[in-house]
Design goal:
Blueprint: H1 17-23, H2 25-34, H3 36-45, H4 66-75, H5 77-88, E1 115-116, H6 118-129, E2 134-139, E3 147-150, H7 151-167, E4 175-179, H8 184-196, E5 199-202, H9 209-219, E6 223-227, E7 230-232, E8 235-237, H10 239-247, E9 255-259, E10 272-274, H11 275-280, E11 291-292, E12 296-301, E13 311-315, H12 317-330, E14 338-341, H13 348-360, E15 364-368, H14 379-387, E16 391-394, H15 396-405, H16 408-411, E17 420-423, H17 430-440, E18 447-449, E19 461-462, E20 479-480, E21 486-489, E22 495-496, E23 501-507, E24 517-518, H18 522-530, E25 537-545, E26 551-556, E27 561-563, E28 566-568, H19 570-578, E29 583-593, E30 597-606, H20 614-628, E31 637-640, H21 654-661, H22 677-690
Helix pairs in contact: 4-5, 6-7, 6-8, 6-13, 7-8, 9-10, 12-13, 15-17, 21-22
This protein binds adenosine-5'-triphosphate (ATP) and magnesium ion.
Adenosine-5'-triphosphate is lined by residues 302-307, 309-310, 348, 424-427, 449-454, 477, 539-541, 553, 556, 649, 651.
Domain Acetyl-coenzyme A synthetase N-terminal: 68-122
EC number: 6.2.1.1
Domain AMP-dependent synthetase/ligase: 124-511
């Protein structure tokens, strides 16, 4: 079967049921062509600006070059952002005020009196100019069965979902919870919410019923969208059953839309709606709601690395503009590129750089449904070769994992399409950075270590944009993005003005992509981000500013260890430990020590097939840290473990390790985002044996 008219499309014999049932053009063509003219009317009625993208420099009043743009964005932020918003977004009502922000009160508003629709910006304007351009390449879990969707098809799918949601009573301002694997219908569901003015709340489809229920309740959703089963890494998960269990304790839920990812039928209750069946009844034209810039686009819970996840709220225009601009400039994205961000849509990275940023820019974006090691550790690079990916964006945890399997899994595949490699989520240690650069990128692709958070909406610090040929320092996020003004604070809350210094990372100016509040808890928003350093946004992370003025993230401030009065970030010690050839990864924490105040405890995972005795390795690691950092940073205790406790987004949960070492097992805190509870059990046992 061929999907779509595009000759480049992949023929695939065993497409999933919803592809077969719904999206073969043969079934949609009649409806699609028939309404073509009326869709254009809709575009005209909604006042969309259908002009193609402006040339790069024109979007900024003729200013070009990184240094000049950065100056412009900081010295006259209003003009900079106004020019960007006018040229990069299509408005149904132009904005007059650019910003109304007061960081000391946690008040953030951008383009407030303007109106637009995010789905029109991500879909309709591209359908108008290039309907047959591929919008999504769905890299299904089953290798080699990818499916492509054009912008026209994605718009049609989105409109059907939008109409269905509307018909079933979802209104502007409601919040729809989406519990789905990364797939086209999940993207269409997000965009359909945006189209009709509902907010979405995407919950990672690996979370338990309890974690899902907590997020549904907090979001007060009456509608949930899910699939019968998920398929990831060759394993089937019963997502519909998880939803059934979750909604038992969610009195607000009135309806659950169930799509079919596999053929397996599921028990449907009176509350459940067969999604594809109902979508077929819907029109492929759906009137977009005119949304004010500051209406809610989505809420999204953070990864929970440091405690109870926060439901952060992002709004329409500012978020979309920031995601689009960073996507274009940080990754040097050019029209026609295939952008491969492998993050799940359940995380902010999936929101900003799988969905909103690339689609706003009219890119072809990859939806990765699988894992880096399924069916083997060559999966990413096989995909790069097959899909001709130009920008690849992943997480250090996966890079460290793949490095353990050796270079042959990378070298097997042609990676000549790659132009830029990106990293996000945690500090990337030197060894992983170098492997990514040398082996994966063949030494010719810039590696961009991108620092940002769910709170920031998009990338804030990254090596690019930079002037052509500007240096990139391994493991450093380096340069603030346009309009971003990082500052470092000392312990007394004073701004550190010199270079070659470390401090608490704050932002001195608001930017359009930042979160507006914590859902249902504006007070917590103010207390967490704006109270610690009045007048500044506090990130919770520590950073070092080099002699040259480049930034390096040193880890979370909660994780900073104070040994005999020396403050040191965990990332720095881990980076050195990880450079030992036997080590795959490590996590360092501080524990209380009667003489030093705090001492260093390292959890170490070894590479495959390492046979050196642990005592010998311990000695070696201690001496490497003494030599490369200082004697005080050398770990007092080293525990070798099979794996580290991580969040489901792949981040090390150091707070859990601290509790284990403090023998405070009753207060491990919120574990709803913990990936694999057995890792904690193993560590508790190993810790007791070590003592
Ligand atoms: P929670 O806020 O619930 O504890 P979280 O902070 O892990 O969870 P996210 O918003 O997904 O939730 O992650 C943002 C954090 O990830 C940053 O604050 C930072 O600590 C870390 N991070 C992200 N990118 C980088 C990077 N390139 N280098 C270093 N750290 C990074
Ligand atoms: Mg955080």
């Amino acid at each position: 079967q061929t999907v779509g008219n595009d000759p480049g499309r992949v023929a695939c014999a065993e497409l999933s049921s919803w592809v077969n049932a719904m999206w073969l053009p043969a079934k949609c063509a009649a409806a699609g062509r028939g309404v073509w003219a009326s869709r254009l009317c809709v575009l005209r009625r909604s006042g969309s600006n259908t002009a193609a993208f402006m040339p790069e420099a024109a979007g900024f009043g003729g200013v070009s070059g990184r240094a000049a743009l950065q100056d412009f964005s900081l010295s006259d932020g209003d003009s900079f952002w106004a020019a960007a918003a006018r040229h990069r977004l299509s408005w149904s009502r132009p904005f007059r005020t650019v910003r109304d922000c007061d960081l000391s009160r946690g008040r953030i508003k951008w383009f407030e009196d303007g109106e637009l629709n995010v789905s029109v910006n991500c879909l309709d304007r591209h359908v108008h100019t290039c309907p047959e351009r591929v919008a999504l390449i769905w890299e299904r879990d089953e290798r080699g069965s990818e499916v492509r969707y054009t912008y026209r098809e994605l718009l049609e799918m989105t409109c059907r979902v939008g109409n269905l949601l509307r018909r079933r009573g979802v209104k502007k301002g409601d919040c729809v919870t989406i519990y789905m694997p990364t797939c086209p219908l999940a993207v269409a569901s997000m965009l359909a919410c945006a189209r009709i003015g509902a907010a979405h709340n995407v919950v990672f489809a690996g979370f338990s019923a309890e974690a899902l229920a907590e997020r549904i309740r907090d979001a007060q959703s009456s509608t949930v969208i899910t699939v019968n089963q998920g398929v990831r890494g060759g394993k089937v998960t019963e997502l519909k059953k998880t939803v059934d269990a979750a909604v038992q304790s969610c009195p607000t839920v009135q309806q659950v839309f169930v799509a079919m990812r596999t053929e397996k039928p599921v028990t449907m209750t009176a509350r459940d709606v067969a999604m594809e069946e109902e979508m077929l009844k819907e029109d492929v034209v759906c009137e977009p709601a005119a949304m004010s810039s500051e209406d809610i686009l989505f809420l999204l819970y953070t990864s929970g690395s440091t405690g109870k996840p926060k439901g952060l709220v992002h709004t329409q225009a500012g978020y979309l503009l920031y995601a689009a601009l960073t996507h274009r400039y940080v990754f040097s994205y050019q029209d026609g590129d295939v952008f491969g961000c492998v993050a799940d849509i359940g995380w902010i990275t999936g929101h900003s750089y799988t969905v909103y940023g690339p689609l706003a820019n009219g890119a072809t974006t990859v939806l990765f449904e699988s894992t880096p090691v399924y069916p083997d550790p060559g999966r990413y690079w096989d995909m790069v070769e097959r899909l001709k990916i130009n920008q690849f964006y992943g997480a250090p945890t996966a890079i460290r994992l793949l490095l353990r399997y050796g270079d042959q899994w990378v070298n097997k595949y042609d990676r000549s399409s790659l132009k830029t490699l990106g990293s996000v989520g945690e500090p990337i240690n030197t060894e992983a950075w170098e492997w990514y650069h040398r082996v994966v990128g063949e030494g010719r692709c810039p590696v961009v270590d991108t620092w940002w958070q769910t709170e920031t909406g998009g990338i804030c610090i990254a090596p690019k944009p930079s002037e052509p040929d500007a240096e990139i320092v391994p493991g450093m996020a380096m340069r603030p993005f346009f309009g971003i003004k990082p500052v470092l604070m000392d312990a007394e809350g004073k701004v550190l003005t010199t270079n070659n210094t470390s401090g608490a990372l704050c932002m001195a100016q608001p930017w359009p992509g930042m979160a507006r509040t914590i859902h249902n808890d504006h007070q917590r928003f103010i207390e967490t981000y704006f109270r610690p350093y009045p007048g500044y946004f506090f990130t919770g992370d520590g950073a070092y500013r080099s002699k040259e003025g480049y930034y390096q993230i040193t880890g979370r401030l909660d994780d900073v260890i104070n040994v005999s009065g020396h403050r040191i970030g965990t990332a720095e010690i881990e980076d050195v430990v990880n450079q030992c050839p036997a080590v795959a990864e490590s996590a360092v924490i501080g524990y209380s020590h009667s003489i030093k105040g705090e001492a260093v405890y390292a959890f170490v995972v070894l590479k495959k097939d390492v046979n050196v005795p642990e005592a010998e390795l311990s000695k070696e690691l201690k001496s490497i840290v003494s030599e490369k950092i200082a004697k005080y940073a050398s770990p007092d205790l080293i525990q070798f473990v099979k794996r580290l406790p991580k969040t489901r987004s792949g981040k090390i949960m150091r707070r859990v390790l601290r509790k284990v070492v403090e023998s405070d097992l009753d207060s491990l805190g919120d574990l709803s985002t913990l990936d694999d509870p057995t890792a904690v059990q193993e560590i508790i046992q190993g810790h007791q044996e070590l003592l």
